[in-house]
Design a protein that fits this description.
Elements (H helix, E strand, L loop, with lengths): L1 H4 L2 H14 L5 E11 L2 E8 L7 E8 L7 E9 L12 H7 L1
Antiparallel strand pairs: 1-2, 2-3, 3-4
Amino acid sequence: MLKRLKKPQNQSFAEKAAKEFAPAGGVGKFLGTIDEEPSVVSYRFQANLKEYVGWEWNVVVFQGKKADPTISEVVLLPGKESIVAPDWVPWSERRAEL
C-alpha cells in the first residue's frame, strides 16, 4: 500500500495542492516524505517565502484501498532551520532575572 502512495504522480498531486494554497512561487523543491499511517503520507516541500525562512509546506495525502488519493490537509510548518519565537516565559520569571 505505501509503495502505491509514493508513486511520482502522487508527489505531483501533492505539489499541485501546495501550489494552490501558496502564493505564486511559494513552493520550492521536494524535501521528502513522512509515513504517518499505513494509508497516509505527508509530502514535504520547501517554502519559498521570505517571511518564513526554513519553513516547509506539508501536504497530507490519504489513499484507501482501490481509491484515488485525496488531500487531507496542506499546512505550513517550521523546519529544522526555521526562525521561530522563543518559548514563552511568565512575567514573574522574567522579572526575577532582573
